[in-house]
Specification:
Keywords: Methyltransferase, RNA-binding, S-adenosyl-L-methionine, Transferase
Distance between the termini: 50 Å
Number of domains: 1
Number of helices: 6
Largest sheet: 7 strands, mixed
Strand content: 15-25%
Helix content: 25-40%
Mean pLDDT: 86
CATH class: Alpha Beta
GO molecular function, one term: methyltransferase activity
Structural class: alpha/beta
Protein name: Methyltransferase
InterPro entries: KsgA/Erm, SAM-dependent_MTases_sf
Pfam families: RrnaAD
Radius of gyration: 16 Å
Amino acid sequence: MPLQSSVRASKKPLRLDDEVRFLRSWMEKPLHMGAVMPSGRLLARTMAQYVDPDAEGPVVELGPGTGAITNALIEHGVDQKRLVLVEYNPGFCALLRERYPHARVVQGDAYRLRDTLWEVLKSPASAVVSGLPLVTKPMLTRLRLVRDAFLALAPGAPFIQFTYSVVPPIPKSLPGVSTEASERIWMNLPPARVWVYRKG
């Protein structure tokens, strides 16, 4: 019992440190940040459950920040060596390299995904997991991101996106694209939903 308590105690400051990092980055550049705080554990686990840990090919995460979703992917069974983490913020990139030394951390713009991943991916991705603030972007930017993600993905592999909005971040009526959504995650602050898009 004392061991569990000490483990819990050691985890809390790490989460608090991440929240401070997020808040500081948001205050410095609010338009570049998707959220003021890292994703909650339940939201991160929900996103990770849509990734097949045994599938071949890299798993690309867009906007990992301090690694809340990255942690959930690893706990779900995704080998750290398969992770390609695309992060814009250089401070978060340094932190991610320290926390996940076997992952590939790419400092770049996820909204220019084709250019960012051009020389990085050697085989089609088995999933793209996005923590980007899609609903804050014009629809044309969102559609271009999804198009570029599908170009990087193996056929039928998921593009996974969460949103705090009550409407989907990408229209459900895209030709040749199937869509599914999780239940609303009320335990996340603010409540969120995970959307999954697949192109056949």
